[in-house]
Design a protein that fits this description.
There is one protein chain. The protein is 41% helix and 14% strand. The protein has helices spanning 21-36, 47-57, 88-98, 100-112, 132-138, 150-157, 159-164, 204-216, 232-241, 272-278, 298-311, 333-338, 351-355, 369-378, 391-400, 414-426, 428-448, 453-466, and strands at 12-16, 40-46, 68-73, 121-125, 142-146, 180-181, 190-191, 221-224, 245-247, 285-289, 315-318, 343-346, 360-365, 382-384, 405-407. The radius of gyration is 22 Å and the shape is globular.
């Protein structure tokens, strides 16, 4: 009598993103990718983010599948029904302080369930390192996923050294921030202004980032959504500090899971903009989107508005309902009349589809890493208006190292917007930068093809780290 072969239990990975739209989106891409590689996935959202998602997209958005499930934990903050992004400072400190126990309880519940495989590894956001002690308790790999650039992570890693040198925290705004930092291995021509936390009067967020970075470098591995050719110098420098760095991006270009649900945007996408783009000429449209948390005054909003209008080039502009700092984000009526037929305003859109549309010529962006990577994947050069955090160093590299961006001043003026748009849309400089952007797109695609650096690194991550047996 032949014996049936033993049933091999699937590897079960828990994915824990920071509850911010861009972080959730990036972690979902990684989770779908691991699911397509045969992993059973549990995706953990905070209760507040989960509620916003259900309100925006309905129950099918978290329906999952037989091998992809959703769970929630409390973020430790006071419950709220507001349909806005939570205060980042308070959210960061609350998750760091309050999420360990509910997460530990969740892992225990999953391991005691007869309906799912036992948890075999945990992939956590770089600022959700409270999960790592639970991985250690379970004797399983705890992996940190940073949805930021390698150059940003290298900067954050050196925050303690900058504190020791008296460069951080800044004493006040009058301190010169234009000096070049030339002692960080792998970074070139970086300015102090490219990585300072200005709006941190009591230095709380600086301390928080130092703690999370230091915790993260104790993980089994660090995963980055970038590719070696894009950041080869800084990636090489990071690997000399910490060997287990896996660059597997751009995640958007990898073969994804067939899971159709799990759309993570908490803003409703206005897909009518795609039909509008279909009517525009090739490489004729400026796409404008400042991400999910950036704010601006009504004065800044109107400077951008009239700069775009006066350029006489068509544009698609995403303006979130909560983008205004002072509650006066309504654009002037005469502006709306002036741009009729050549401007499209929407509250949100499917960005990857927009950036891959043939009518898009340039992307006016805040330089968040997801947006930067998606622009590279679309072969679209950038006009950069960074505001805080990693956006500053991303802008620096986009413009100075990769040659696919032009920075505009923080104190935005309509004349500058008009001049830059016309120069890049009509001049030789713009043509050269579009060619460079297309070359970077090709390089990114090669990295994620079979045998490419990112594809190979993904296979190594799975075999060397994620599939390790329990200790």
């Amino acid at each position: 009598m032949e014996l049936e072969p033993p049933v091999i239990e699937k590897q079960h990975v828990i994915c824990v993103p920071f509850p911010l739209q861009s972080h959730v989106n990036a972690m979902m891409q990684l989770a779908k990718l691991l699911n397509s590689k045969g992993f059973y996935v549990t995706f953990v959202l905070t209760e507040f983010f989960h509620t916003r998602l259900l309100k925006s997209r309905g129950p099918d958005s978290v329906k999952g599948s037989d091998e992809f499930r959703f769970e929630t934990i409390s973020d430790g903050m006071q419950s709220s029904s507001k349909d806005t992004t939570q205060d980042i400072r308070n959210l960061s400190l609350s998750t760091q302080k309050n999420c360990l126990t509910p997460f530990r309880n969740l892992v225990t519940k999953l391991n005691q369930s007869s309906n799912v495989p036992s948890v075999s590894c945990i992939v956590t956001d770089g600022v959700m390192t409270f999960t790592l002690p639970v991985a250690k308790e379970c004797g399983i790999p705890g992996v940190v996923f940073w949805p930021i650039s390698a150059c940003s992570l290298m900067v954050f890693f050196h925050f303690p050294a900058m504190v020791e040198r008296g460069l951080l925290p800044l004493k006040d705004e009058s301190v010169s921030r234009n000096g070049t930092i030339d002692w960080i291995q792998g970074l070139r021509g970086t300015r102090l202004k490219d990585f300072t936390l200005i709006d941190d009067p009591d230095h709380t967020m600086l301390k928080y980032m130092v703690e999370e970075i230091q915790n993260g470098f104790k993980a089994s591995a660090i995963v980055l959504n970038t590719f070696d050719d894009l950041e080869h110098e800084v990636v090489g420098a990071m690997r000399s500090i910490y060997g287990n760095i896996y660059t597997i991006g751009p995640l958007t270009l990898h073969c994804q899971s067939p899971l159709k649900s799990a759309a993570m945007n908490v803003w409703n996408e206005e897909t009518e903009c795609l039909q509008w783009l279909d009517k525009q000429e090739a490489t004729s449209v400026i796409y404008v989107n400042f991400g999910t948390i950036a704010n601006m005054t009504s004065k800044q909003l109107n400077e951008f508005a009239w700069g775009l209008a006066n350029s006489n080039h068509p544009f698609l502009w995403i303006i979130r309902r909560d983008i205004g700092r002072d509650g006066q984000e309504i654009l002037l009526e005469d502006f709306m009349t002036d741009i009729e037929g050549r401007g499209f305003i929407a509250s949100w859109c499917p960005q990857e589809e927009v950036l891959s549309h043939p009518s898009i010529a340039w992307f006016l962006t805040h330089c968040g890493w997801n947006s930067t990577v998606e622009s590279i994947c679309g072969g679209v050069p950038m006009i950069c208006w960074p505001q805080f955090g990693d956006q500053l160093i991303n802008c620096r590299y986009t413009c100075n190292e990769w040659g696919i961006g032009m920075e505009i001043s923080d104190d935005v003026k309509r004349e500058e917007i008009q001049r830059v748009v016309r120069e890049l849309m009509e001049g030789e400089k713009g043509k050269e930068m579009r060619l460079k952007a297309m070359k970077w797109k090709e390089t990114a695609e090669n990295a994620t093809r079979q045998g490419g650096s990112s594809s190979t690194n993904l296979d190594k991550l799975i075999s060397e780290v994620l599939q390790l047996k329990r200790a």
